[in-house]
Amino acid sequence: MTGSNTKLVMYMVGAFVLFITWDSYGVINTGSRGLNVIDPLRIADQARSHTIQEGGKSIEDIVVQCQPISAEEKQELAKEIKHYESMQKFHDKIKETKGETGLAAHHKSIIKYLKEKVLKKGWSVLDLGAASGGMLRSIIDAYNEMDELKGPHGKFQAVELVTGWVTFAQEFFSDKDRFGDVSFVEGDITDFTLDDPDATFDFVMLNDVMEHLQQKRYGCFFNKLKTVTHEGSIVYMHTPTPEAQLHDKDQFYENVLPHHLLISGMANAGFELVTFEHDMDTECFGHPMKGLPRQIEGGGCYMGGWIKYYHATFVRASNKGLYQLNAS
Fold it and tell me: Considering the entire predicted model, what is its pTM?
């Protein structure tokens, strides 16, 4: 085959290879024929025509599925939350929000990244999976203290599933002279109602939240995210790497989230990838394995020999051409 047909087939093969190997190193060995490899956002639409499997389901099936939570599952989750509220981790989050303890190492890294690379003056902010509000408080402090962020800004709002954290935060952030216009609502990040149901936000953040999503609710989340954003909205996620999740199996309600599934799901919902960077600043115990890619050598936090966290930033962009494979 020659000409434009050959080019199109080569792109499609490249797309297929990319999705299969994206989790390993993000580098594709295209061979001596020099196949073209397309940005994953521009080929997310191709997932529809390939039978790439994740646990027996295609990527498209997973990122669009939105199944209801059964009464039994709700009861079980309520028990888990009640148990979690009795644990020291629950109380440590509250102490962090109140400033009685310093920020956790990964929270310091998140705030550093957001201050240096993401936040803009005047933004409204939505924190999904906000815990007791420690990270939101750090964002408020940044807007109050940094010259480049000071000035009028939109509303700050948060959503959290754990009742005890919501009760605490609603009282703690009620001081408008200290914190401004902040509100907390209780809800699942796939199903919640804000004070203003029509509100959209300039900036949405999910800090170590995406790994907690149930597989059958990814579509619910991506759909909900569209309702609280507008053209140009920025969505930031800080998430454990798949390698870390495979190693750390005893965490509360967590799943391994492959990179390509997240990027494909966001693209399918109309969010273009802006940056994807491993978190090299978090400090923790752990040692790198031998033979790591050079880009993640010298980090401060490894789990199972691999860098533990990553930063991902997306922008809401409605141009459908960004997410489709088109022959040039």
Answer: 0.83
State residue 114's pLDDT score: 98
Contact predicate 207/129, CB 8 Å? yes
Contact 204, 49 (CB under 8 A): no
Instruction: Give just the sign of the alpha carbon dihedral 30, 33, 34, 37.
Output: negative
Locate 133 and state its tokens. Answer: 């509000």
Is residue 316 within 8 Å of 235, Cβ to Cβ?
yes
Distance between CA atoms of residues 324 and 322, nearest Å: 6
Compute the average pLDDT of residues 244-263: 84
Closest Cα to residue 209, out of 125, 128, 309?
Answer: 128
**Closest to 214 (Cα-Cα) out of 65, 6, 17:** 65
Cα-trace Rg, the chain: 21
Give 158's strand partners.
127, 184
Calpha distance 131→166 (Å, rounded): 8
